[in-house]
Amino acid sequence: MAQPIIDLQGVNKWYGEFHVLRNINLTVARGERIVICGPSGSGKSTMIRCINRLEEHQKGHIIVDGTELTNDLKNIDAIRREVGMVFQHFNLFPHLTVLENLTLGPIWVLKQPKAEAEAAAMKYLERVRIPEQAKKYPGQLSGGQQQRVAIARALAGSPKLLLADEPTGNLDTQMARAVMQLLEDIHRDGATIVMVTHDPELAARAQRNVHVIDGQIVDVGEAPRLHMNVSRLSA
Amino acid sequence: MAESLKGGDAPARRLSWNDPDVRSVVYQVVALGLVALVGWFLISNTLHNLSVRNIASGFGFMEREAGFAIGESPIAFGPENTYGRAVLVGLLNTLRIAAVGIILATIIGTIVGIARLSKNWLIARLATVYVEVVRNVPLLLQLFFWYAVITETLPGPRQAIDAGLGVFISNRGIKFPAPTDHVAFDLAALGFLVAIALAVAVSHWAKKRQDATGQPFPVWWTGLGLIIGMPVLGWLVGGAPMELDMPVLRGFNFSGGATLTPEFAALLAGLVIYTAGFVAEVVRAGIQAVNYGQWEAAGALGLSRTRTLRLVVLPQSLRVIIPPMTSQYLNLTKNSSLAVAIGYPDIVSIANTTLNQTGQAIEGIMIIMAVYLSISLSISVFMNWYNKHIALVER
Amino acid sequence: MASVTEALPPPNPQSGPLAWLRERLFSSPLNAILTMLSVWLLLMVLPPLVEWALIRANFTAETSAECRAGAGACWAFIAQKYRLILFGLYPFDEQWRPLVAALILIGMIVASCLPAMWKPRLILLWVAGLVAVAVLMWGGILGLRYVEDTLWGGLPLTLILATFGIAVAFPFGLVLALGRRSKMPAIKTLCVLYIELIRGVPLISMLFMSSVMLPLFLPEGFSIDKLLRAQIAIILFAAAYIAEVVRGGLQAIPKGQYEGADSLGLNYAQKMGFIILPQALKVVIPPMVSLFIAVFKDTSLVVIIGIYDLMQSTKVSLTDPAWRGFSIEAYIFVSAIYFIFCFSMSKYSKALEDRLATGHKR
User: Fold this and answer.
1) Given pLDDT bands bounded at 50, 70 and 90, which one contains residue A230?
2) What is the C-alpha separation between C237 and C291, in angstroms, rounded?
3) The pLDDT of residue B8 is above 80
């Protein structure tokens, strides 16, 4: 078996006295699209936020693309370069244009020349089908458009892995479907996607589902049978 | 049909009290009339009173000899100089205390504001106590307090506290070494100016290079090096003189060196400590205004903490901070007028002396108001310009 | 795979005094250094301060020489002079009158802070209270001896200047705010000019103006006394700031409220009086409290034109040749008075703001 892109071994985390992640074991293979679902407060968000060190785990090992996450800033930087992230609240930079949002990472982290970064960014904006918004500011866009920009921003660093924390949580049903469709297309192009949601309909569209309850993985299953129905509905 | 759309058949307008436009005109005429009436009443009274008291109006007195001395002045001034020059001295003194005060209050206020948000319990507590105490006691009282501390509790010049490095603290103020009149110090000052120009040039060049090749350049460190290095270089080229004009105790007082008078020191301490409390709150609000998600998003892109601060957080914080910060700067400038209470010769204090000596009350007050209004006006013009250019674009 | 893991306690203790210390004071090397530095600073400052202010202080000395003998603070000076500091030159036997007046003013301020009192009759309470204060201070009726206002002083005077200042300036400020938002260009310009002119200059210049220019403005032979002139300056000054606070409140009212009022066919006075102002004024209570604090602190400036307020009575108490050189003690005492007033009001304003903020969300 090829080296997995994510390998969580016995990961534990506490918020004060609260045991939020309890002995999590999970491996994700390259090219997979998995959904982590569970009720709110179950620890699913915390779990993926540990993968790029937005949260610190206290016990166990997290290995991303062969690099173990430790306190070493070099490792954290290396892993964040490999991992793109999409947030529930988009977290776009309101003082920068859409294009500048996309090029900030490539220019300052990957040290790309500006023209090159901008050309690549335009390609990603076309991929998410809003190239005409490039010169606008995030505040001028709708929620669905903002989330597309956020996805394009996460892709702009050409990560090996895309994390999405409730990417549709702040969108209405129609926008949510469009964003999901986009993520599926991106996956088809070869990206590995780990997504957190509590929406069962979205969970049903995944290849593999991980159920988290009370900070524990209770069930890792193949995509449920709903899958066919849903894809027919959305087609 | 077409006719009526053009308004041909529109109901004829008659002059009527029920027409809002008519009402509006009447109201405005009445308001202007009332103001004019009150103005005329005040002005005619004033003219009458002035003629009764034999006071000539006008600014002719500005040419006359002032006849009083001024404790401290950035330009030469003696009793034989004119009132006009005295007013200029006052203005310069006001600008001087305001400029120094603004710089120090910004530095201290920023540190305290950040400290209030510190995860360190003790630091956060200390900062909170500072802010609460300083903001809830009148500035004037604080000025009196610092003035009393300096003039009553500090020893006289003969027992001055030797703070080391040639700095002496006594109830006559703070004495410190000053650069002598040597070409090396002029060269050092020149080096400083050249360094600033170079730093600007380097940052332009660095941006161009990064756009082209993607390689960032350590602009901040280079700039810092230049600003420290160039003056040192100038000093070395000038022959690296080691002697400074040191304060020396002669008889009952010091001679040589430069002085912070007790008045200047007390006013500065009071203004800075007081305003820093308000600046701290402005800074705290500005930092809190930036959502934590911004840090996370930038971190997820792989930006370091320093770059996140510089590229993402500060540009957003500054938008929130700068408008209230400017109004704090304005407050500090206006509050420097309290100088009159402890005898620092600022514009209010000198205008006050002038109007007491000459009886030119109206002109004296007009000078004070004109000075502050032009400062306020220039700052608000800047603020409006700034707000237009920097406001976040939202729909 | 799906074996259930029980919730476990964290590997390191997360509560208890040790964890608290680690979390709050020593979470990183930088934090540890900062903590040590502050502790060092406190150790340098606090013990000598406590020694000066409490341990070696003299509370009971009868003469200044006796006080000076100890190396500590001379609180005996305050014990000797507190009546002068608090009540100024008000006739000694009659000083219960300014005391009661001050209590009435404080009572009215506290009452106005209770949301249960925010009803129209609060205005009646204020009118009654202010009349009572005037009667007590001046006297001349009800068997009270007449006391000239040149003899008023100290804390009651400070309270009077601040409360009368805000209370009288409020209607002016309200009119100015409405004027500034008016669509009539002449009225708008007049209001903007007034507001910006006053806000652009320091209070001190207004006080000077009232003390030297007001006499020139009035017809010959007509004069107003010094205290009233200072009060007028404070009112004119406060009105401009109140106008800006109220304008903020008016701007916070959504456009729909104006349109709703218009659609009911209300005229301007009805629209403002019944719909807009009641909402806007509620929004501006917290900033009004902050403004009151600022005015309360700023009244100390009248000392510069020689009015006998708390600040001036303190300065006068310091000129007694028998008790020279205790300014630090006196200023600390007065600071404490100002602090108690301002701090409690600002805490109240903060609490109110939080309460109103949640009230709006629901």
Assistant:
1) very low
2) 12
3) no
Taking an 8 Å cut-off on Cβ atoms, the answer to whether C2 and A17 are in contact is: no
pLDDT digits (tens, 9 = 90+) for B60-78: 777 788 778 887 878 888 8
Nearest to A113 among B214, B300, B392 (CB): B214
Check CB contact under 8 Å for A108 and B395.
no
For residue A100, give the H/E element and its range. Answer: helix A98-108
- Give Cα C218 distance to the centre of its chain: 31
CB C230 within 8 A of CB C210: yes
* Sequence-ordered list of residues with C-beta below 8 angstroms from that of B46, at least 6 positions apart, any chain: B362, C213, C216, C217
Q: Do B316 and A113 touch (CB under 8 A)?
A: no
Distance in Å from the first CA to the final CA of chain C? 45
In chain C, what percentage of residues exceed pLDDT 90?
7
Chain B partners (3+ C-beta pairs within 8 A): A, C
Rounded to two decimals, the pTM is 0.83
CB contacts under 8 A, C 80-139 vs B, are none
- Give the separation between CA A24 and CA B67, rounded to whole angstroms: 87
- Which residues in chain C belong to E strands, given as ranges? none
Taking any CB pair shorter than 8 Å as contact, residues of chain A touching chain C are: 12, 14, 16-17, 19, 22-23, 25, 58-59, 214-220
CA distance C292 to C60: 37
d(CA B48, CA C221): 12
* pLDDT band at residue C357 using 50, 70 and 90 as cut-offs: low
Residue in chain B nearest C293 by alpha carbon: B136
- Asked if residues C84 and C98 have their Cβ atoms less than 8 Å apart, the reply is no
Q: Count of residues for chain C?
A: 362
- Report angle CA A75, A76, A79 to the nearest 5 degrees: 85
Pairing assessment for the beta strands A33-37 and A208-213 based on DSSP bridges = parallel
If one compares B272 and A21, the residue with the highest pLDDT of the two is B272
If phi over 0 gives left and psi between -120 and 50 gives alpha, with beta otherwise, what is residue C306?
left
Looking at residue B275, its pLDDT comes to 95
Token pair recorded at residue B156:
């006289």
C8 in contact with A at a CB cutoff of 8 Å?
Answer: yes
Report the DSSP pairing between strands A161-165 and A83-86.
parallel
Residue carrying structure tokens 């006068």: C316
A158 interface with B at CB cutoff 8 Å: no
- Check B137 against C297: CB less than 8 A apart: yes
Q: What is the pLDDT of residue B105?
A: 95
CA distance C155 to C87: 6
